[in-house]
Known about the structure:
Elements: H1 2-8, H2 11-19, H3 23-39, E1 45-49, H4 55-60, E2 66-71, H5 74-83, E3 90-94, E4 107-112, H6 116-119, H7 124-133, E5 135-146, H8 151-163, E6 180-181, E7 187-188, H9 193-200, E8 205-212, E9 216-223
Parallel strand pairs: 1-2, 1-4, 2-3, 4-5
Antiparallel strand pairs: 5-9, 6-7, 8-9
Amino acid sequence: xxxxxxxxxxxxxxxxxxxxxxxxxxxxxxxxxxxxxxxxxxxxxxxxxxxxxxxxxxxxxxxxxxxxxxxxxxxxxxxxxxxxxxxxxxxxxxxxxxxxxxxxxxxxxxxxxxxxxxxxxxxxxxxxxxxxxxxxxxxxxxxxxxxxxxxxxxxxxxxxxxxxxxxxxxxxxxxxxxxxxxxxxxxxxxxxxxxxxxxxxxxxxxxxxxxxxxxxxxxxxxxxxxxx
Length: 228
């Protein structure tokens, strides 16, 4: 999937996906950001995994003290740098989210939303383990996927992206609850509550599953131990 987000669906093409989103999808996108902001303390040091062209980072500058955005796509990071040129408290890094170039226990909040845990196409348990590693004890790592209640809206949005040529043609025969595939290799899945709980089992963390706006499913992970 790196070829999609690094070559086919990056920078301006990625931004266009959000520009054409229907009103209900834009509500979902805003609700995710507002939920993250509600979980963030003013002045926090925040890491976003899969920051793309900076859509979420720009919103988080309203409350964060310092932001770091990580993405595999250099084109998207270049666009993000231009868009965030006035945000001196934001650093952008090209890196793999399962091999983060940061020392342990440095972030007050780690964010991976808009189904990044599926979109990255990496081992979900390794992704979460690495996010927990760089999160301070007692602080949170937030992952989100889609709520099953949002399926019709989600599928409509992806069909619009395909119609614009941003994605390949959707394989309607394979389209089913929770999975969207295109004929050129794109695949988006859904991570459900039991999946999240399985992925966090044995990590020594506290896990809470929260539904937001009947569109997002948040897995909120807190590493046990004293705050640093």
